[in-house]
Write the structure tokens for this entry.
Amino acid sequence: MKQKVSIYTFGCKMNQYESQAMAEMLHDYQVGFSQDKADLFIVNSCTVTSEAERKLRQLFRRLKGLNPNSKIIITGCYSQLSPNELRELGADEVIGVREKKAIHKYVSRQLNRPDGVAPSEFLTVTSSIEGRTRAFLGIEDGCLNCCSYCRVRLARGSKIISKPIDLVKREFEGLVSRGYREIVLTGINIGYYGFDLDSSLVKLLIELDKLEGEWRIRLGSLDPDRVDGELLHLITTSRRMARHLHLSLQSGSDRILRAMRRKYTVDEYLRAVDRARSVDTRFAFTTDLIAGFPGENDSDHKESLKVVEQVEFLKVHVFRFSRRPGTEAAEMKDQIDSGTKKARSHELIEAGKRSRKKYLERQIGRKASVLIQKTGHTESSGFDEFYAPHAIEGAHEGFVNTTIISIESQREGSDAELYCRSVVR
């Protein structure tokens, strides 16, 4: 009987992709995700916030309590930067980000099994942790930015490592041939894809757009300074590119953006939004905002609220500022107290809900191409090319052409989970 391995994942889409890749490398084990009983656990960690690290330590203690004789390997960004802390916690093996490529060796060593699987230069996948319709595909690692609050760059490094275009194409074709219809290109900062290959994200997308099949590409998170006219032209002229970008804002105040060492102004951000919507007024944006960055005053906070209202984001992800060891922002003066951060975070979240409602209400009566992700006896659900969620009466599969007839909520009296009610046309 094969020994059981369970993988837990914290953090970003890149981590989710790498967890799937590690699972596929462990083909001679019985591998599952987030299962409480196993001979060995792999915890793929995140270090973006102190809360992510706290949750990992909490999970570790729970798993150890349930499985006192099982082994636990911790990998990822947290383990890359704080290995001794995790060894003191009691982890049987602590490995860094790059060692994920040799995960079979570490698992076999802990379970006293022969290895026999050579580490690969690049992680690849043939299936998805996301289900049967949408898959993540990692194309790049590393970041050239020097954001004053970010610890991920310290873990992943400032050297860009891009997966060669031919390898991306083979992996992409493999996923499509297995029935995946939406491929999400992800990385630590995909806007820098190709810097080490004398290539670019646009060149990669042009090559992928030539591949056969019925599918859609969605891009992972991008910084505004990496979105130019060439990229927007490609997105808005290709029928296979999702008309949605996760465009990181972080703050609506130029003063705070400078303190964050971001490479754009609010005006430049808004111009990128306007360029996309000048071609398609429905073009959707999601974003990230940090509440309570050091030195942020009420005026700065109001500027962020103003941008949220102006852009009409489909989704706003709000994070309270977290002092991360080794970052410039952790040592800045004028740290914001937790009560103020909580209050500002709440206001940004509520503004994000109103923004989502306004955007979705503009879609009523419009047509959409919905990729079905869940099919029930009476209703199907999925996401359209703008990343708006849909519920459709009846059992459907694949891409479905619909018309949006109303906006509804999953919870009575709440607009937290608004979605489109659509009919097949």
In short: The chain has 13 helices and 17 strands. Residues 404 and 422 are 4 Å apart (CA to CA). The chain has four domains: 4-110, 124-220, 245-362, 367-424.
